[in-house]
């Protein structure tokens, strides 16, 4: 055994031993590289003068004598060390006398010891193997350390910027096995259920069978897209090494989009924090531009953004100087943590206090603007120069653009440049369809293409701030990787939220969706687009296909265009790859077909160029500047352009008639036709062959606010479900759209089908949640008396359901509480918001009744989750309340009947009561929401629910259409048993 705490030699693996002064032997006093005395002598003998680790010169150790370790060293070695010491003191050079190694002296001291001979042979083999390595190390040691570091950095920069690793097999394999077992058990279960009808309650049995089959199909659509979940890891240090050298940044530019509509529902302070976090992001300032879309044309939004631009001159340098996280001041100053952690600058406390005072003053100014805006003047708003605000009429006003900050404009208080900040309010006129948020986002696409034309776009809702200042770099690890980014249309980040109660009563965090479903899709073709926290490839938004995939086959009607292009190529010199790529983009647009006979006055080349220009104008609109920008694969604006001219052109591309007779909203940009334009936009990109990536950094990239109130939450879910129904009833339905090119993978299609059909689950869910009460009130049940084999199928089904959930939680890391909240709100939303969405969707299709888009209110401040207990009346509350009352009445009636019927009635009662309690437990959070903090519910809800429940119960008890005529006596007996 070696001495405790003594390191092993890096060369021979033996203990480094001790020096004559009793301390551990040290070969290199710079880096403490572990090397024993004998190996050091060998290094010196071979001519190595520098340490192989740090490159520092060796200090002579001949004056040190090495003490023998516990393995035993012969007295010859000690004598030799003493001789070396004596010779050194007399002026001789130790290196010239140490020609015999310590190991050789060991061999000489005990020539007859076989153990020592074997040890010496082993030691010599080690030395021979390491001789070449040592020589190579010695040569490398002669290279300056700076050059070695540069070579190391270059090698690291050439490595991949990200890594994909699947879920460990010990977690994923059992999960897949249980899914297959559950599928088999489901087949056996349905075989039994269908072959064993309940004749006494045939209608109830048939209803339950139809509902269960629908639930099984929904489970398949939801489960199998999670077959191959993956996780990803990024290396932002390698990104910097590769694209940021010698102080020059080659990182791609990014345009940030922030959209807002109503400043009274979306407080300007919340929007301002989002903008400030963008301006302070950890990215080169000349590569960042922030565009704020004010679709309500409110002067309050404009003035608050002006105040924000002024405050940014102080806030941005403060964040970058002290590496503040997060860089939204409201959320940074509200953190209940030690803000001195990792902040060693003595001036930090003083500057932080000063910055907090500045922010409080800034809040006072913004809140004063909000208070002023509560009452609109009769003559409309007036700007500071006395002119009338152009957007006084939000439905009839010109387009407005204001550049607050820019690369050539104002600087921060330290004289550094600030990112560009642009206010945009698109033109609106009566008689034009403006397409709500999707139209506003497309206007920002065109404006940004004119002014900055960054190759990548990051869009955020006004209430989602940048929580991780390196989030853009995380995305660039995928987008700028030549091997990964060539066919990636967008990088989706998970949504994370602040201000939600600890128990997450209404599943506002959507943990199951973001941490399970999205990771599963990342292993197929990529996650769906969820509307915010997404980095787009601008070329993908223009409707182009990825470079790595061949173009879709063209129809015969487009041959004239192809022939014209071929003739053109024959007359012109051979094109380079960039020109060929641009031509392929033109073809991918499926542009309009033109009659060549109408253009007889041009030669072939001019004719082809004219057709090309006309096709682009029919696709992108009448703006030559914008059309030119679409062909710039790496973005950027020509240096010769005049800024004033660009502003005029930007005003032109946001005019309300610009999109008329173009492909905007059909094939280009955010796709129209649904209030959930995000799902539709991502779906179109995946159909073209693009793939997306799910990025989950350790520190959440973005955080937002969610409506924690029950009524607001249900209205939010209603809007999402209505959008899915609209897609289902449109030409873009995944059931039939996108089969021609074969670029959408089947499991990805399953996911999109599940996304648009899930609202229809509300119909069987309502029926299934009503069955327990019907069974208890009528004395019937949907399942006959179970045999032993049938009990096995039922038990196997329940076990497989539990195992699937447990194993899913195991590989995803989601807690069982989050999973249970998700299950509860699936029922709550299904029997309320999803049901209304289905009816509203069909009303819109059949009767043309459009549903107004309601903006979910965002709270600027939240104290003790006061909003959680706030009750707001809405018709969405009636169906789940009715189900609760009906099932509670059924349970009471069932127990009353069992008490009157005797012992034999308690056995059948157990299954019915268990069924009813399943419904009540799932609706329990809804019941708590009705009660509120004071446990009070508005009288109107109680009256409606009790009335509906009473009528429903009496109808079923008195009429009971599920009984045959011969069972009339049973009807009377049931009525008597519950005292009708």
Keywords:
980 residues, alpha/beta, eight-stranded mixed β-sheet, three-stranded mixed β-sheet, globular
Describe the structure concisely for a colleague.
The chain has 34 helices and 15 strands. It has 980 residues and is an alpha/beta fold. The strands form 4 sheets. It has an 8-stranded mixed β-sheet with strand order 7-8-6-5-9-13-11-14, with helices on both faces.
Report on this model:
This protein is an alpha/beta fold. It has 34 helices and 15 strands. The protein has an eight-stranded mixed beta sheet, sandwiched between helices. β5, α10 (268-279) and β6 form a beta-alpha-beta unit. It starts with 36 loop residues before the first helix and ends with a helix.
Count of helical stretches: 34
Enumerate the spans where pLDDT stays under 50 for 5 or more consecutive residues: 60-117, 551-574, 584-602, 962-980
Strand order of the largest sheet: 7-8-6-5-9-13-11-14
User: How much helix, percentage-wise, in residues?
Assistant: 40-55%
Q: Characterize the biggest β-sheet.
A: 8 strands, mixed
Distance between the termini: 90 Å
What portion of the residues fall into strands of 2 or more residues? 5-15%
> What is the alpha-carbon Rg in Å?
37 Å
Structural class comes to alpha/beta
Number of strands: 15
Shape: globular
Mean pLDDT: 77
Secondary structure topology:
Layout: H1 37-45, H2 75-89, H3 94-97, H4 102-109, H5 114-141, H6 145-157, E1 162-166, H7 169-195, H8 202-223, E2 230-234, H9 236-243, E3 244-245, E4 248-249, E5 254-260, H10 268-279, E6 288-294, H11 299-322, H12 329-333, H13 348-372, E7 400-405, E8 420-425, H14 436-451, E9 456-461, E10 465-466, H15 471-479, E11 488-492, E12 496-498, H16 511-522, E13 534-537, H17 538-541, H18 559-571, H19 577-588, H20 604-620, H21 624-630, H22 643-653, H23 677-687, E14 691-694, E15 702-705, H24 710-728, H25 746-757, H26 762-778, H27 788-812, H28 816-830, H29 833-847, H30 878-901, H31 906-922, H32 924-931, H33 939-958, H34 968-977
Parallel strand pairs: 5-6, 5-9, 6-8, 11-14, 12-15
Antiparallel strand pairs: 1-2, 3-4, 7-8, 9-13, 10-15, 11-13
Helix pairs in contact: 2-4, 4-5, 6-9, 7-8, 7-27, 8-26, 10-11, 11-13, 14-22, 18-20, 24-29, 26-30, 26-31, 30-31, 30-33
């Amino acid at each position: 055994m070696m001495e405790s705490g003594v390191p092993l030699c890096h060369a021979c693996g033996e203990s480094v031993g001790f020096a004559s002064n009793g301390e551990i032997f040290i070969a290199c006093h710079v880096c403490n590289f572990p090397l024993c005395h004998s190996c050091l002598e060998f290094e010196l003998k071979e001519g190595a003068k520098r340490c192989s680790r740090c490159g520092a010169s060796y200090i002579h150790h001949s004056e040190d004598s090495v003490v023998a370790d516990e393995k035993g060293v012969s007295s010859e070695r000690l004598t030799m060390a003493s001789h070396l010491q004596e010779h050194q003191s007399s002026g001789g050079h130790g290196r010239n006398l140490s020609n015999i190694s310590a190991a050789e002296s060991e061999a000489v001291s005990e020539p007859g010891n076989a153990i020592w001979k074997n040890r010496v042979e082993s030691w010599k083999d080690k030395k021979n193997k390491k001789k070449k390595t040592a020589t190579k190390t010695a040569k490398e040691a002669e290279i300056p350390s700076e050059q070695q570091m540069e070579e190391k950095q270059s090698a690291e920069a050439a490595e991949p910027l990200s890594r994909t690793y699947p879920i460990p097999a010990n977690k994923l394999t059992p999960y897949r096995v249980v899914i297959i077992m559950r599928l088999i058990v489901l087949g056996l279960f349905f075989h039994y259920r269908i072959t064993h009808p309940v004749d006494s309650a045939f209608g109830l049995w048939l209803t339950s069978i139809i509902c269960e089959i629908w639930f099984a199909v929904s489970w398949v659509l939801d489960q199998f897209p999670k077959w191959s979940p993956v996780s990803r890891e990024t290396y932002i240090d390698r990104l910097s090494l590769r694209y940021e050298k010698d102080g020059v940044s080659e990182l791609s530019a990014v345009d940030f989009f922030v959209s807002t509509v109503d400043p009274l529902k979306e407080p300007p302070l919340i929007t301002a924090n989002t903008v400030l976090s963008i301006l302070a992001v950890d990215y080169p300032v000349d590569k960042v531009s922030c565009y704020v879309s004010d679709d309500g044309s409110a002067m309050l939004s404009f003035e608050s953004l002006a105040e924000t631009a002024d405050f940014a001159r102080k806030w941005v340098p403060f964040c970058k100087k002290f590496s503040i996280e997060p860089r939204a001041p409201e959320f940074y100053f509200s953190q209940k943590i030690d803000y001195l952690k990792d902040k060693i600058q003595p001036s930090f406390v003083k500057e932080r206090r000063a910055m907090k005072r500045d922010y409080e003053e800034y809040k006072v100014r913004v809140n004063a603007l909000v208070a002023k805006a509560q009452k609109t003047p009769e003559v409309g708003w007036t700007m500071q120069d006395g002119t009338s605000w152009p957007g006084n009429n939000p439905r009839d006003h010109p387009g407005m653009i204001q550049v607050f900050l820019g690369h050539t404009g104002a600087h921060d208080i330290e004289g550094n440049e600030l990112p560009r900040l642009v206010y945009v309010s698109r033109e609106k006129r009566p008689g034009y369809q403006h397409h709500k948020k999707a139209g506003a986002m497309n206007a920002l696409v065109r404006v940004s293409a004119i002014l900055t034309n960054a190759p990548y776009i990051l869009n955020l809702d006004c209430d989602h701030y940048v929580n991780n200042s390196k989030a853009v770099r995380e995305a660039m690890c995928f987008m700028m990787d030549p091997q990964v980014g060539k066919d990636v249309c967008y990088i989706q980040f998970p949504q994370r939220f602040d201000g939600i109660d600890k128990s997450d009563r209404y599943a506002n965090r959507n943990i199951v969706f973001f941490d399970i479903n999205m990771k599963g899709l990342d292993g197929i073709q990529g996650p769906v687009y969820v509307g915010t926290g997404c980095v787009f490839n601008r070329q993908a938004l223009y409707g182009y296909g990825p470079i790595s995939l061949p173009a879709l086959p063209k129809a015969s009607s487009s041959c004239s265009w192809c022939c014209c292009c071929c003739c053109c190529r024959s007359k012109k010199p051979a094109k380079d790859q960039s020109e060929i790529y641009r031509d392929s983009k033109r073809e991918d647009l499926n542009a309009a077909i033109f009659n060549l006979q109408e253009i007889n006055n041009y030669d072939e080349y001019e004719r082809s160029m004219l057709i090309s220009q006309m096709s682009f104008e029919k696709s992108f609109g009448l703006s030559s500047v914008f059309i030119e920008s679409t062909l710039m694969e790496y973005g950027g604006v020509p240096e010769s352009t005049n800024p004033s001219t660009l502003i005029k052109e930007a005003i032109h591309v946001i005019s309300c008639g610009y999109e008329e007779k173009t492909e905007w909203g059909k094939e280009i940009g955010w796709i129209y036709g649904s209030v959930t334009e995000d799902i539709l936009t991502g779906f179109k990109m995946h159909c073209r062959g693009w793939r997306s990536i799910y990025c989950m950094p350790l520190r959440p990239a973005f955080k937002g606010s969610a409506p924690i109130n029950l009524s607001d939450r249900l209205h939010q879910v209603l809007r999402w479900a209505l959008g899915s129904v609209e897609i289902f009833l449109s030409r873009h339905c995944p059931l039939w759209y996108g089969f021609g090119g074969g670029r959408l993978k089947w499991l990805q299609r399953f996911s999109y089908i599940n996304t648009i059909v899930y609202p229809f689950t509300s119909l069987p869910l309502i029926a299934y949640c009503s069955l327990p009460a019907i069974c208890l009130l009528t004395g019937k049940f949907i399942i006959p008396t179970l045999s032993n084999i049938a009990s096995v199928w039922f038990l196997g089904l329940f076990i497989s359901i539990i195992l699937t959930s447990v194993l899913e939680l195991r590989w995803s890391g989601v807690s069982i509480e989050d999973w249970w909240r998700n299950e509860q709100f699936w029922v709550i939303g299904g029997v309320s918001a999803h049901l209304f969405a289905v009816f509203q969707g069909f009303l819109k299709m059949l009767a043309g009744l459009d549903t107004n888009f309601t903006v979910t209110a965002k709270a600027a401040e939240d104290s003790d989750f006061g909003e959680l207990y706030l009750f707001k009346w809405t018709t969405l509350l009636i169906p789940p309340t009715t189900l609760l009352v009906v099932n509670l009445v059924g349970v009471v009636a069932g127990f009353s009947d069992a008490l009157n019927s005797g012992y034999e009635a308690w056995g059948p009662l157990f299954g019915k009561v268990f069924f009813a309690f399943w419904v009540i437990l799932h609706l329990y959070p809804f019941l708590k929401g009705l009660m509120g903090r004071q446990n009070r519910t508005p009288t109107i809800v109680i009256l409606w629910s009790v009335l509906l429940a009473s009528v429903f119960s009496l109808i079923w008890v008195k009429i009971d259409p599920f009984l045959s005529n011969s069972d009339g006596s049973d009807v009377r007996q049931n009525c008597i048993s519950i005292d009708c």
